[in-house]
What we know:
By secondary structure, the chain is of the alpha+beta class. The protein contains seven helices and eight strands. It has helices spanning 26-34, 40-46, 56-65, 78-81, 180-189, 207-219, 223-228; strands spanning 6-13, 18-24, 107-109, 140-142, 167-170, 175-177, 198-205, 240-244. A six-stranded antiparallel beta sheet has the order 6-5-2-1-7-8. It has a two-stranded antiparallel sheet with strand order 3-4. A hairpin with a 4-residue loop joins strand 1 and strand 2.
Amino acid sequence: MAPTTVSLKLLVDTTSERVLFAEAGKDFVDFLFNILSLPVGTVISVLPKQEMVGCLEKLYESLENLSDTYMQPKANKDTLLKPILSNYDANVPRLLPNIQSSTTTSLYRCGNSYNNRECGIYVASDSKSICPSCNGIMSQIVTVVNPPTMQASSCDEGGYVKGVITYMIMDDLVVKPMSTISCITFLSKFNIKDVGVLEEKVIDIGADEGVKLLKASFQSDTVLTDVFLGKKAGQSDASSSTAVLTISI
């Protein structure tokens, strides 16, 4: 079962009050990469409307408030407002609310398929579809036969990336494998001379933080700093523990 919380270790420059990078495992990286698979309608439905920027919220509300009188008979508004994700991996952490997923898709054919060969060549994903051959309702469920599946490898953990590696997440969400050399290079890049100004902060990320990360990823190139160090009135911090980090170079 996919976790509902994950931990993230931040390396903070206390002088400039910014997150230099984060140390993350497979779960958090899978969550970030899975954002790329979300339909626009899902993103809008997840984000608080009062915090939306741009005009997509207005477009969403326009469709939401549009009377069915103006919709095509076969059109379903929920396919745009509340899209069901067929590729939402079961092992990706559930850090976003209101996401509907489906692992199966039903197919239908015309009930006259046994009597009319031409009817049998058509299939539909909607049980209300009309058969092009006889104009009958395509409501008969089709049994989908998939090829034999290969036995899952013991190293197949699901999700997107491998779990034996620790990943480095930059403030702008650039993801790369973590190594001692990459850490030292990165500290040199930001001209960090005194490691005493660095602080390690461990964050527990749940649904609230997941939504904030999604929102910030559309608005900022300092996502981790904005979400985990940004102090705004009325906002509570993520639960965390801090410790001074010692690095030997």
